[in-house]
Amino acid sequence: MARKNRRFSTFSLSFLDIMSCGFGAVALIFLIIKHGSDHDIEAKNQDLVAEVELLKEEVDYGREHLVLARNTLDTTSDELADAQGLARRILEQIEEVKGNIADIDSSTEEDDIKRLQDKLRKLEQAKQQLEEENKKLGNNVRKFVGDGDRQYLTGLRLGGNRILILLDASASMLGDELIKVIRIRNMSSRTRREAEKWRRAINTVSWLTAQFPQDSQYQIYTFNTGFQAAIPGTEDRWLNVDDRDQLDDAMKALDEVVPDNGTSLERVFNAVSAMSPLPDNIILITDGLPTQGMKTPRRKVVSGKERLKLFSSAVRALPKGIPVNVILAPMDGDPFAASEFWKLAMETDGSFLAPSRDWP
């Protein structure tokens, strides 16, 4: 029997298979693309939510520590520094979260962004509350506690934008009596650094720095026949009080100073005149009138009248209009010192303090 010819049709099985595979591939590509986009958006939202929760935990942590700070005033300084650092980190992380929010498509994630922005506003309010609490806690950068946790009332004027401490580091700071000075001066450097009178002077500087306003600047000079900054190389600039590590470094450097030689007030007062800008408050820690001026004296012994002349010459070198607060350490054999330094303090609108041997 003759075989019949098969008719050709455009809707044959093979053609339908090809069309089905094509439509399936298109649908699969669409699903993959949409799933990837949704996954990316969801991942970004999870990251932002995690960061916000982390910020919230840090704010709660800061509040707990502020409560502890109110109950323990003696540790106010340390906790204040922690709270300030926490506030700065919160601000940085807030700005980072804001940047991440800006990168998200506002048309598709508008509700999530609004919710995150509300949380950010709450965090900013919490940060402001932390800063206000910090101000209430006080602004002492360092802590100094005297013997027996005593609090001291003095007439010293410790304010100002630029505070200069001048610390006498001459040999007379080794003792209250001349015979003690001569005996300790011939001992080792370690023994001279540990002399009782010198340690009182160092503790006085430490107490003063603990009272500085936090937003002020300072400089510490030690002087004898010359002068130098507590931190070498900083003679020509002012240091920030809120840099606590640098202030601690300055105090550590003072611990290494060895009292020696005579005293030249005129030389250090000339250095004060060269500072730019000038200090607006000077605190002078010394124990007597100067023993030389800008030049080394020919004789080793300087009379009381000569020391008065050297003091007058030094005062003339001091810039006008700057209060000089004098802390006069005890020293036998210099009867004119107290009256002359008292007059200097009064004429410059400063203050005068002759502390006891257990101060500060």
Structure overview:
The chain is elongated. Helix 1 runs parallel beside helix 3, helix 2 runs antiparallel to helix 3 and helix 8 runs parallel beside helix 9. Strands 1, 2, 3, 4, 5, 6 and 7 form a seven-stranded mixed beta sheet that branches. The protein is of the alpha/beta class and 360 residues long. Helix content is 52%, strand content 9%. The protein folds into two domains: 122 residues; 207 residues, Rossmann fold, CATH 3.40.50.410. The chain has ten helices and seven strands. This is von Willebrand factor type A domain-containing protein. Pfam families: VWA_3 (PF13768). InterPro entries: VWF_A (IPR002035), vWFA_dom_sf (IPR036465).
CATH class descriptor of the largest domain: Alpha Beta
> Roughly what fraction of the amino acids lie in strands?
5-15%
- Report the span from N to C terminus: 131 Å
The CATH homologous superfamily of the largest domain is termed von Willebrand factor, type A domain
Core attributes:
360 residues; Rossmann fold; 7 strands; elongated; coiled coil; transmembrane helix; vWFA_dom_sf
What is this structure's SSE topology?
Elements: H1 13-71, H2 76-102, H3 110-137, E1 162-168, H4 178-185, H5 189-193, H6 196-210, E2 217-223, E3 227-229, E4 239-240, H7 244-254, H8 265-273, E5 281-286, H9 304-317, E6 324-328, H10 337-347, E7 352-353
Helix pairs in contact: 1-2, 1-3, 2-3, 8-9
InterPro entries: VWF_A, vWFA_dom_sf
Keywords: Coiled coil, Membrane, Transmembrane, Transmembrane helix
Domain VWFA: 200-293, 308-335
Summarize this entry quickly:
With 360 residues, this protein is of the alpha/beta class.
